[in-house]
């Protein structure tokens, strides 16, 4: 499945135990992640600024980067999210023809979908991609 994993899901999966860790370690490699330079830089910056981690310290990031389909998103006009900074997630999903977006961000989740692309919580994603887990 072609998926945009929002930065908050990846960060949570790298720095804390729990559902997002399971997604990053086991589900991310099973799917076709979609990335853009903007999302990658947000991820790397967040890890460095908040957790003093670099991408080179996290082998799973190299795996994600290699497996990913890289796209160049077109800015959304007019903005869609109540937080316009989150529009890059939607634009990346559109550019990559994603089948779903996985996020913990309420500003995205409130939309429920965009351009027929479902926007799911990590738990919803796990339930749909691996029923019974």
Description:
With about 130 residues, this protein is an alpha/beta fold. The chain has one domain: 5'-nuclease (Rossmann fold). About 50% of the residues lie in helices and about 15% in strands. The chain has seven helices and six strands; from the N terminus they run βααβααβαβαββα. It has helices at about 5-15, 20-25, 35-50, 60-65, 85-95, 105-110, 120-130, and strands at about 1-5, 30-35, 70, 100, 115, 115-120. The protein has a six-stranded mixed beta sheet, sandwiched between helices. Helix 1 (about 5-15) crosses helix 2 and helix 1 packs parallel to helix 3 (about 35-50). It is globular and about 40 Å long. The mean pLDDT is about 95.
**Which radius of gyration do the C-alpha atoms yield?**
14 Å
What's the count of strands? 6
Shape: globular
CATH class: Alpha Beta
**Domain unit count:** 1
What is the arithmetic mean of pLDDT?
93
Structural class, from secondary structure content? Answer: alpha/beta
What series of H and E elements makes up the topology? EHHEHHEHEHEEH
Low-confidence stretches: none
Q: Sketch the major β-sheet.
A: 6 strands, mixed
In the sheet with the most strands, the strands line up as: 3-2-1-4-6-5
In short:
The chain has helices at residues 7-15, 19-27, 37-51, 59-67, 87-96, 106-109, 122-129, and strands at 2-5, 32-36, 69-71, 100-102, 113-114, 117-120. It has 133 residues and is α/β, with parallel strands linked by helices. The chain has a single domain, classed as 5'-nuclease (Rossmann fold).
């Amino acid at each position: 499945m072609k998926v945009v994993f929002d930065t908050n899901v990846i960060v949570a999966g790298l720095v804390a135990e729990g559902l997002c860790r399971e997604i990053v370690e086991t589900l991310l490699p099973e799917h076709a992640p979609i990335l853009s330079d903007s999302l990658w830089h947000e991820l790397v910056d967040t890890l460095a600024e908040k957790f003093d981690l670099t991408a080179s310290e996290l082998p799973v990031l190299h795996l994600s980067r290699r497996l990913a389909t890289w796209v160049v998103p077109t800015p959304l006009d007019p903005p869609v999210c109540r937080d316009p900074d989150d529009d890059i997630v939607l634009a990346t999903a559109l550019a990559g023809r994603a089948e779903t977006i996985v996020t913990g961000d309420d500003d995205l989740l409130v939309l429920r979908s965009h351009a027929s692309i479902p926007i799911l919580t990590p738990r919803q994603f796990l339930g749909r991609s691996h029923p019974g887990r």
